[in-house]
Amino acid sequence: MTMSDDAVGVLRVIRAGPLALLQDAGRFGVRRLGVTQGGPADLHAWAWANHLLGNSWGTAALEIALGGLEMVAEDDMVLALCGADLGTTLDEVPVPCWQVVTIAAGQRLCFGSPRDGVRAYLAVAGGFLAEPVLGSVACVSREGLGGHDGQGRALAADDRLRVDRSCQASAREHYKGRQVPVEERIDYRNPARLSLMPGAQIADFSGASLFAAFNRPWHVDARADRMGVRLKGPRLRCRLGTMISEGIPLGAVQVPADGQPIVLLNDRQTIGGYPRLGALTPLACARLAQCQPGQEVRLVAEAPQRAQEDYRRFRRRFGVTPTLGDASPR
Amino acid sequence: MSRELPLPRLEHAGIDAWLVRLFNEIDEANMPWLTALMRRCETTFGAALVDMVPSYTTLLVHYDPLALSSHEARRYLETALSGLAPDEEGGRAAVKELPVWYDDSVGPELERLERVSGLDRAGVIEAHCAHEYRVFALGFAPGFAFMGSVDERLAVPRLETPRQRVPAGSVAVTGRQTAAYPRLSPGGWNLIGRTSAILFDRQREGFSLLRVGDRVRFVSIDRVEFERLGGDLSPVEERS
Known about the structure:
The complex is a heterodimer.
Chain A: E1 8-15, E2 19-23, H1 43-52, E3 61-65, E4 70-73, E5 77-85, E6 89-90, E7 93-94, E8 99-103, E9 108-110, E10 116-124, E11 128-129, E12 160-164, H2 166-175, E13 192-198, H3 207-215, E14 218-224, E15 228-232, E16 246-247, E17 252-254, E18 262-264, E19 271-272, E20 276-280, H4 282-288, E21 296-301, H5 304-316
Parallel strand pairs in A: 13-21
Antiparallel strand pairs in A: 1-4, 1-12, 2-3, 3-10, 4-9, 5-8, 5-10, 6-7, 6-9, 11-12, 13-20, 14-15, 14-21, 15-18, 16-19, 17-18, 17-20
Chain B: E1 9-14, E2 17-21, H1 31-45, E3 49-55, E4 58-63, H2 70-81, E5 96-101, H3 110-117, H4 121-130, E6 133-138, E7 145-148, E8 163-166, E9 170-174, E10 177-180, E11 185-187, E12 190-195, E13 215-221, H5 223-228
Parallel strand pairs in B: 5-13
Antiparallel strand pairs in B: 1-2, 2-4, 3-4, 5-12, 6-7, 6-13, 7-10, 8-11, 9-10, 9-12
Helix pairs in contact in B: 1-2
Keywords (chain B): ATP-binding, Hydrolase, Nucleotide-binding
InterPro entries (chain B): CT_C_D, Cyclophilin-like_dom_sf, PxpB
Protein name (chain B): Carboxyltransferase domain-containing protein
C-alpha cells in the first residue's frame, strides 16, 4: 500500500516463532486456476479480533501458530488478541486473551507456548498494510502468494509489519477495554463436537463405518497443518477406491485407503479424488484448527440448511449484509 | 455432433457450494460442456458467485451464502443447466503451443518412456507432440494443468519415490495425462523435457497460461531455441 512513511506505524519482529502468517478472509475467484483459498484457519477468533477494533470483515490480521513470536512496537498502537492462549506478555506482564490491548512505542509483545488452543489472532486498528496478490493478502507459503511481503513468506526476524498510524489514536478512544462476550470465548481444551454435513458418497461407506464415524471418539493426529488435519480412530471402509478428481470444498472429510479421515482446511489442494464423508461446517473447521495433537473430537451429523443458518447468524454479528437483495435467477 | 447430457446430478457440497456432476467418465469431449456451464453460472449467479472449480467431469460452484440460501442456489443451477449446449469448437479458441526441449538432462524419464513404449527417442517425442491435448483441470499448484489424453503407448505409472524438487517448466507424463510444473515443487510424474513458457504469472491478465478446456500442443525445440526463449538449462538434480 502506498502511504508516506510518517503515516505508517511499525511492529517489528524480533523472533518469528514457528509460523506467523498474515491472513485476510481468503483468496477467492481464482480457485479454477488451482489457487487455494487461504485465510484464517480459525475464522471465529480472527473475526472477533478484527471486530473488537471496528475493522470491517476481511481485514488482514496475524495468525500466530504455537507462539514463539516476539515483536516490538515502534509506534503507539491499538491491537486485539483472540483465539488460543499462547502465554502472551507485554513487557513481561501477562496479556489476557479475547480483548483489546493498547501498546506504546518501545513495548515488547511476546508469545510463549500454547496453553489452550493452537492459534492466536492479533488484529490492529485499521488492519496490517500489505499489497494484495490475486485479490488477497492471505499468506500461502506453498504457492508463494500473499503475506506481508506478497511472496507468501511467513514472518521472519527483522520483518516490519506496517499499520496505519492515523487509525490508532481514534481507536484508543473508541475501543480501549473492549472484550469479547464471555459466552463467545471458547475453551479449546474441552472435547470438540464438529458438525459435519453428510456428502454424496456417504452411502458408499459401510454401515458399521458410518456408525463408528458418528459414535466413536476421534483423536487429532500430529499430522495437522493448514492444508488438513488427520483424525485417528476406527478404520472407515468405503466401497469406492479413488475417484476422478473433483473440486474440494473447505472442511471436506476425505477418507483415503487407510480409512483414517483427513479434514481439508484453508490451504488444501483445490481438487482431489478420495471419497468423502461430507464436509465440516466453517465454524467446525475453525474449532478443529484449535485442537492440539491427541485431543478428542466427535463428529456430529448436521443438516446443510441448519448449518447455513448458523453461519449466517455468525456473520450477521460482524455487521455483514447480503450482497444481493433479491433471490431470483437472472 | 453434441451428445445429450446423461446426468447432471446436483450434490450438496457445503454451506456455500454445490457440486454439479455432468459425466461419469473422463473424456476430452466433456470440456466444452463444463466451460459452457461456467459461463452460464457467471450470468445466472452474478455477484453471488464466489468461485468455480471445473474438473474432468464435475463443476464445483461456490456461492455467497449470505446472498443465497442453498435452495435458491440450487434453483440458479437448474436455470444455468436448462438447455445447456457445449461451447462451439470451430477454431474459436486458438490452440496454445508449449515449446519443449526434450533432453535427458531436463527429462530423465525419457529413457523410461522409450523402454516402456518400444519407441526410439524421436518416436517418443513425436508421440507426445502429435496429439492436441485438452486441459481437464487445474490443481496441485497454481497454473498446474492436467492434460490428456496421452498416447497409450506412453502411459507409465508415477515414480515410486516422488522428487522433492521438480524444476519450474518441467514437462511430465503419468498414465494418460501430461502436465508442466509452473514452479519448483515436489512431484512424482515422469519428467521428459522442459518448456520455456511461463505457466503462472501474477502480472499477467488472467494469471495462468492454461485454463480448463484449453486445447494445447507441445512443440519440440532444440537447446539453442530453448535458451533463446529464456528456458532454464539447469539439469534436474537427482537424489535431492
